[in-house]
Amino acid sequence: MTIKRNIPEWVPLNYKSFVVASQSNQCCDISKMLNSDYQKNLFSELLGFSQLHQKMWDGLSKLVEDLCSTEANTFYICLHLSIEQAWLATRDKTLDASTIKQRITHTEKTIESLRESLNNLNVFKQESPILERIVNCGWEDNIGMKQAVVNSLKAVSVSRPVISQKDCEGISDLIGYLELYLSQLKSSDASVPRQTPSVPTKSFTTESSTTSRYIAVMFDRTFGSPHYGNVANICNVLGFSDISKEKVTQTYTKSAFAKSKPRP
Q1: Torsion angle, CA of 209/257/85/53, rounded to 10 degrees?
Q2: Mean pLDDT of 190-212
């Protein structure tokens, strides 16, 4: 992925470094994660020279100025991928054909089924100190090799399956993920079907509200606050011109993530 353009002077130094890393063969993890036409266009959208762009970067600069290189790269990767995931999510119309009540019923059944599967796995469960050593060994710069060793060990032990605590935790995490989704569904009107908006794409539609909510969740996880103003600025740069700090606040406070946060 090559970005052939000048970078505005108000863009933080660590984002300029991130742009370089995204195009470098020496930073293959970053370049692989951002290897899509969408991301190439997203870089171009974020590196504009308008007053909206300067306002956005002025706000972000204050948040990222004290981050180390690894923290900054992690934040920027999460930001880029959250925006792309929101775009992908709003193009999947599978859920739009059913009412919220129907989705609640389906999600409850799925959670119940996963819990039953988790209980059934206890029959096969055996702890393997070998697997635990592999999982905890590091090897962060060669995940492929690590996974190959795990797959090989599971293949040779197939006559007595090794179901570890880590395997069970993956299912538990999925249950928790669906429970958050269920919580959000139940906070909505259970009799109203989700309608595909008929208004132009770049107004306060499913895409813009989803994008603002995804970014706000990512900010909350990273900085401990949704930073509604910064989220609105990013959305404005992405073309959602009617997104405001107030609308971001309204959308986010109804989300499952916000509702799941422990109260002080």
Answers
A1: 60
A2: 55
